[in-house]
User: What shape does this take?
Amino acid sequence: MEMIALMENDLNIRFDMDHNKIFTLDTLLDPRYKQQFFEAEDLITIRSQFFVESLKNSMSDDDSDSGNDDLQSTSTDKNNIETATHKNFWQCYQNFASRKIQEFQDDKSSSAHELQSYGALPVIKRNDDPFQWWSRNSSRYPEMSRMAKVYLCCPASSVYR
Assistant: This one.
């Protein structure tokens, strides 16, 4: 009996969906399951995890895109240096902060809209391929599609270390 209890405890720790972000986001992004295995009170936490990951992805995309934008816009920046200067540091900071807040709100609202629309769709059949589903719907759910490519991957090993 002690062996069974130890095994059950170990499995509960390894596959605890409440505390494992990978399992929760993977289940949420799998169109075969979506939100079926979550309690209503857990969905708030899971949605917040989704928004955090979505924001991380969009910020990393912005960082990689900004390198290309910097190279392309150097000539434009030279022409606009005088108009872009600010009277003081705090005015510059306020302009920067307000732009970032607006970008965050736009990202959050688009992700929220995607999640709400995705959640309203019926689940697909258990034998259907979720990768094909995301390929067909990537233009409809661009942010979620990018996250699905990350979270719906097969683990390299099934051995827990």
